[in-house]
Amino acid sequence: MAAAGVIAVEVPRIRRPAVGYAMTAVAAVLFGVNGAVSKVALSSGLTSLRLTEARCAGACVGLALLAALREPASLRLRPREGRRLLLFGVVGVAWVQLFYFLAIHRLAIGIALLIQYLGPLLVAIWARTVGREHVRRRIWAALGLSLTGLVLMVQLWRGDGVDGLGVAFALVSAVVYAAYLLLAEHGVTDRDSVSLLAWGFLFATVFWTVVQPWWSFPGATVARTVTLQGRLAVWHLPVWALVLWVVVLGTIAPFTLIVGALRHLSATRVGIVAMLEPVVATIVAWVWLRESLSSVQLAGAGVVLCGILLAQSAR
């Protein structure tokens, strides 16, 4: 997959904001549904870290095949590109999942997700201070609305399960999520989104292989059959089918859409629209898994949507 001395092909930057918003929204919906699918898969006894390892490896193979079918030359590694792709893969792809899972081990998922979604705010601050870019007031207002809505959705004031180390892990997750958006935004300036993600997930897979060698992977667990729980409890699927969903529709498709959207929108706007994920995840868990959903949480979802619409209205 590597070749030295390859001439970089200039990738046209025709921005279509409407396309970018649509791509990000679809990705957020897929990520939100993937939360429920992952929860069912984890009920089999498969650990979160092992699921993430399988997710990265499967996505790496799928994205590499997709890139090879579309344009084999896109997989070539250009000179002095290796370090940036290594950073994108380990920090942007592997670490954002690692620290998120470490956070939810000590915190309620909603609180951890809320803290992680400080990432778009960090991107806006980076753009304003380091990048010297003009960030419109409407974007700041949209960020404020979206974060307020997330607070309502997880009902943060209750203080349930707040753990200092868990909060620290979640804050690190927010930082690496912001790094992921910025690295991806930079990466799509001279590389298509599929090949960029293929290399990113390759380095992420290498990272997970070192952390958790494949020879210790619990293959027997993946072969089990589990109930789909909740309103679909009468249906059963093998764990490998759920893992396949996580790989294809929970990883390859939404990650490709998110990175592709960065060709049309700034990282800040993509991050704001991606806040649809916890809204969708909460609704899917309510409809499918019969998890409770209060009027306050519904109001919070509405506030998040208002924030996203406000961001879309800004030029």
Can you walk me through this structure?
It contains 13 helices and 2 strands, in the order αααααααααββαααα. It is an all-alpha fold. It has one domain (33-71, 79-313). Strands 1-2 form a two-stranded antiparallel ribbon. Helix 3 (82-106) crosses helix 8. The longest helix is centred in the N-terminal third of the chain and has 26 residues, at 17-42. The termini are far apart.
List the helices and strands and how they pair.
Blueprint: H1 17-42, H2 48-70, H3 82-106, H4 109-116, H5 119-129, H6 137-154, H7 164-187, H8 193-211, H9 219-222, E1 225-227, E2 236-238, H10 239-261, H11 267-273, H12 276-287, H13 295-313
Antiparallel strand pairs: 1-2
Helix pairs in contact: 1-10, 1-12, 2-3, 2-8, 2-10, 3-7, 3-8, 4-7, 5-7, 5-11, 6-13, 7-11
Number of DSSP helical runs: 13
Structural class by helix and strand composition = mainly alpha
Termini separation comes to: 39 Å
* Helix and strand sequence: HHHHHHHHHEEHHHH
Q: How is the largest sheet built, in terms of strand order?
A: 1-2
Oligomer: single chain
Q: Report the C-alpha radius of gyration, rounded.
A: 19 Å
- Average pLDDT value? 81
The shape, in one word, is globular
Sequence stretches where pLDDT stays below 50 over 5 or more residues: 1-11
Please bin the fraction of helical residues: 55-70%
Q: How many individual domains?
A: 1
Q: Major β-sheet, in short?
A: 2 strands, antiparallel
Count of beta strands: 2
